[in-house]
Automatic annotation (TrEMBL):
<keyword id="KW-0997">Cell inner membrane</keyword>
<keyword id="KW-1003">Cell membrane</keyword>
<dbReference type="InterPro" id="IPR035906">
    <property type="entry name" value="MetI-like_sf"/>
</dbReference>
<keyword id="KW-1133">Transmembrane helix</keyword>
<comment type="function">
    <text>Part of the binding-protein-dependent transport system for phosphate; probably responsible for the translocation of the substrate across the membrane.</text>
</comment>
<feature type="transmembrane region" description="Helical">
    <location>
        <begin position="80"/>
        <end position="105"/>
    </location>
</feature>
<feature type="transmembrane region" description="Helical">
    <location>
        <begin position="201"/>
        <end position="222"/>
    </location>
</feature>
<dbReference type="Pfam" id="PF00528">
    <property type="entry name" value="BPD_transp_1"/>
</dbReference>
<dbReference type="InterPro" id="IPR011864">
    <property type="entry name" value="Phosphate_PstC"/>
</dbReference>
<keyword id="KW-0813">Transport</keyword>
<feature type="transmembrane region" description="Helical">
    <location>
        <begin position="117"/>
        <end position="138"/>
    </location>
</feature>
<keyword id="KW-0592">Phosphate transport</keyword>
<protein>
    <recommendedName>
        <fullName>Phosphate transport system permease protein</fullName>
    </recommendedName>
</protein>
<keyword id="KW-0812">Transmembrane</keyword>
<feature type="transmembrane region" description="Helical">
    <location>
        <begin position="158"/>
        <end position="180"/>
    </location>
</feature>
<feature type="transmembrane region" description="Helical">
    <location>
        <begin position="21"/>
        <end position="44"/>
    </location>
</feature>
<comment type="similarity">
    <text>Belongs to the binding-protein-dependent transport system permease family. CysTW subfamily.</text>
</comment>
């Protein structure tokens, strides 16, 4: 009691002052995010408008040849879009089934000891620099693929898809695991009480109950795969084409942005402005995926008490 008498008293004015300071700091952090996003949109829009004053939007979106730096030049972005789609689809075919299976095992079948070992190792993949994945593709994945496909090129879409799929695998596994573990045990117990097997409980109760979070993890992983740069640049190469095989070199939108950013293209010209036009299109695609993910979360989200 004697110690309590000597504790410093805090007046209501001091409490309000501290709260106002904290609120102001949080608001300033939010304002920085808004200003940064607005600045990015402004720069992309300004440079893209200058590009589209020279190159028609129709030729840019539907052209099938991308040769912006040589004569005769061509500015059809479809080869870059196709390369991005090939890498994204290939990565999704790898990370979605493996990531979901890993999440189901961790949340439903793994013991506490197994989970404490497997999950940190799985999440460790997310901490590896992307350039390391690129060199891993060149020195291990591609040589291994050459035993299966002798005609495969050194830079190829299949190798890029594999390393990007491995790279985004922890995102799918972790987010899906969190969604599955958020399902109340009462649903599992009720299913078991009705005579369901462990497989039926997992596939018909737990996974449908956590479906919104699972789908959101898929979309976020796809967005991450679309925006990947260094690993794709090193593994898939820089050849924009509409090839329908995974065994040839391609170029993604991000890889082209890196190519222009290296400084070989004079600033201010049309070839330089293509970087902003491609980046703007990539920004729109990623934004649409995030909007779809938000809609799915709101539409199918289950709230448990």
């Amino acid at each position: 009691m004697s110690r309590a008498r000597h504790l410093p008293s805090i007046t209501n004015g001091q409490v309000r002052w501290h709260e106002s300071l904290i609120q102001g700091g949080l608001g300033f952090c939010a304002l920085i995010s808004i200003i940064t996003t607005a600045t990015i949109i402004f720069i992309l829009t300004r440079e893209s408008v200058g590009f589209f004053q020279v190159i028609p939007v129709k030729d840019f979106l539907f052209g099938t040849s991308w040769v912006p730096m040589f004569e005769p030049s061509s500015f059809g972005v479809l080869p870059l879009l196709w390369g991005t789609l090939v890498i994204t689809v290939g990565a999704a075919l790898i990370c979605i089934p493996i990531g979901l299976a890993s999440a189901i095992y961790l949340s439903e079948y793994a013991s506490a000891k197994q989970r404490s070992i497997i999950k940190p190792v799985l999440e460790l993949l997310a901490g590896i620099p992307t350039v390391v994945y690129g060199y891993f593709a060149l020195t291990f994945v591609t040589p291994a693929l050459q035993y299966l496909f002798p005609d495969i090129q050194v830079f190829n879409a299949l190798s890029g898809s594999i390393v990007v799929g491995i790279m985004v695998l922890p995102m799918v596994a972790t987010l899906s695991d969190n969604a599955l573990r958020a399902v109340p045990d009462s649903l599992r117990q009720g299913a078991y009480a009705l005579g369901a097997t462990s497989y039926e409980v997992t596939t018909q109760v737990v996974v449908p109950a956590g479906l919104s979070g699972i789908i959101a993890s898929f979309l976020l992983a796809i967005s991450r795969a679309i925006g990947e740069t260094m690993a794709v640049t090193l593994a898939a190469g820089a050849t924009p084409n509409l090839s329908f095989t995974f065994l040839e070199s391609i170029q993604t939108m991000t890889a082209y942005i890196v190519q222009v950013s290296m400084g070989d293209t004079p600033a201010g010209g049309v070839a330089y402005q293509t970087m902003f036009a491609v980046a703007g299109l990539l920004f729109v695609i990623t934004l649409l995926l995030n909007v779809i993910a938000t809609f799915i979360l709101k539409r199918y989200r289950e709230v448990y008490q």
